[in-house]
């Protein structure tokens, strides 16, 4: 059965790219889209930044036709600011607006935004209602299990946010205090799926990094789809591999070196197109090691790549990698 968010038809068991600051920008989204991801989100965008017209926040509103369906994710601590930010974000023309109630980092959570709203469900509900009422678009929410081990309240959160009109919920199976430590636990996500009151799609998030895990957790936790973050960094092929497996029951071979180089080149080119040569080349530096994980002594190439600031020279090193490792089977 197809999963739907409002009028958006995501097909059966969709795979979502998690919103990731400094990662899920248009260049990275391009390579994920090429590899079959079903829905994507922008990096989180500060509601305060949006209403102040801050350049950094505004730039994150850039979305492209080929990216659809795509959600713009916003966060904030003040309800009126969130309302105004929703109106601004809606004008950018996304398919939906997502609210971040999951971010654990101090800068966000300790300023009353992100996961900190898990400590005040009344405010979270009021904020969500305000966002829903400020846009014609579907509103979705991404959150965690709760603030800490003693307050795992996502079950109640799911009911209350559905009641004020959210149309899908993505849950990262950790609490705020866990940050990214320990294992994600999807048990409560299944509890929510089994709650007869819950009708909206529920997506599982946290630690999916292989076909085995995705297939096992799909069955075990009964989720409507999976959201993947870290495992896609430097490995956007995870989407096509999972899709293929779910459609056919068979495993695709991993990408060849040629394909890895090609995707890395595209990512670099898109980065330059969108950010300009200086920032585009600079920000691409953090991605090289991820694209070539498993290559012996890659450090040597990485050292070269991160020092170069001319695209032709970078392209040359990439060609060198391609020819030097043409016959290597990378085990990922
Ligand atoms: C570098 C990085 C940036 C992130 N930025 C965001 C963000 O902007 N908004 C958000 O909701 N979650 C953010 N997250 C959390 C991810 O969306 C996701 O919930 C988390 O990484 C767990 O999923 P994973 O195990 O598949 O990576 C970020 C995570 C990482 C690693």
Structure keywords:
332 residues, TIM Barrel, Non-ribosomal Peptide Synthetase Peptidyl Carrier Protein, Chain A, 2 domains, eight-stranded parallel sheet, 43% helix, binds flavin mononucleotide
Describe this structure as you would to a colleague.
The chain is α/β, with parallel strands linked by helices and 332 residues long. It has two domains: 2-248, Alpha-Beta Barrel (TIM Barrel); 257-324, Non-ribosomal Peptide Synthetase Peptidyl Carrier Protein, Chain A (Orthogonal Bundle). It has 15 helices and ten strands. Strand 1 and strand 2 (8-12) form a beta hairpin. Helix 11 runs antiparallel to helix 12 (277-284) and helix 11 packs antiparallel against helix 15 (311-324). Flavin mononucleotide (FMN) is lined by residues 18-21, 23, 43-44, 73, 100, 102-103, 142, 172, 205-208, 228-231.
Write the layout of secondary structure elements.
Blueprint: E1 2-5, E2 8-12, E3 15-17, H1 26-34, E4 40-46, H2 47-52, H3 55-59, E5 70-75, H4 79-91, E6 96-101, H5 106-109, H6 121-133, E7 139-144, H7 154-163, E8 168-172, H8 187-194, E9 202-205, H9 211-221, E10 225-228, H10 237-248, H11 257-275, H12 277-284, H13 288-291, H14 298-305, H15 311-324
Parallel strand pairs: 3-10, 4-5, 5-6, 6-7, 7-8, 8-9, 9-10
Antiparallel strand pairs: 1-2
The structure holds flavin mononucleotide.
Pfam family, one: Dus
GO molecular function: oxidoreductase activity
Catalytic activity: a 5,6-dihydrouridine in tRNA + NAD(+) = a uridine in tRNA + NADH + H(+); a 5,6-dihydrouridine in tRNA + NADP(+) = a uridine in tRNA + NADPH + H(+)
């Amino acid at each position: 059965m197809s999963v739907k968010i409002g009028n958006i038809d995501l097909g059966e068991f969709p795979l979502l790219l998690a919103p990731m600051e400094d990662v899920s920008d248009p260049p990275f989204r391009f390579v994920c889209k090429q590899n079959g991801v079903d829905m994507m989100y922008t990096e989180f965008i500060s509601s305060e930044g949006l209403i102040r017209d801050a350049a950094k926040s505004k730039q994150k509103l850039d979305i492209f036709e080929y990216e659809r369906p795509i959600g713009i994710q916003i966060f904030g601590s003040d309800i009126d600011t969130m309302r105004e930010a929703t109106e601004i974000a809606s004008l950018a023309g996304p398919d939906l607006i997502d609210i971040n109630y999951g971010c654990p980092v101090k800068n966000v959570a300790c300023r009353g935004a992100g996961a900190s709203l898990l400590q005040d469900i009344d405010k979270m509900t009021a904020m969500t209602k305000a966002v829903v009422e400020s846009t014609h678009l579907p509103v979705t929410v991404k959150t965690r299990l709760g603030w800490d081990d003693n307050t795992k309240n996502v079950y109640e959160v799911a009911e209350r946010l559905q009641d004020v009109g959210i149309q899908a919920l993505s849950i990262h199976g950790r609490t705020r205090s866990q940050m990214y430590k320990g294992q994600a636990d999807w048990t409560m996500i299944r509890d929510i799926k089994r709650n007869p009151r819950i009708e909206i799609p529920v997506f599982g998030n946290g630690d999916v990094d292989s076909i085995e895990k995705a297939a096992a957790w799909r069955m075990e936790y009964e989720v409507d789809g999976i959201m993947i973050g870290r495992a896609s960094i430097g490995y956007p092929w995870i989407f096509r591999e999972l899709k293929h497996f779910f459609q056919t029951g068979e495993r695709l071979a991993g990408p060849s070196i040629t394909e890895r180089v090609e995707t890395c080149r595209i990512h670099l080119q898109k980065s330059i197109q969108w950010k300009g040569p200086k920032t585009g080349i600079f920000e691409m530096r953090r991605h090289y090691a991820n694209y070539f994980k498993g290559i012996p002594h890659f450090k040597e190439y990485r050292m070269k790549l991160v020092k170069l600031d001319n695209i032709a020279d970078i392209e040359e090193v990439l060609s060198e990698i391609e020819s030097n490792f043409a016959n290597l089977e990378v085990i990922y």
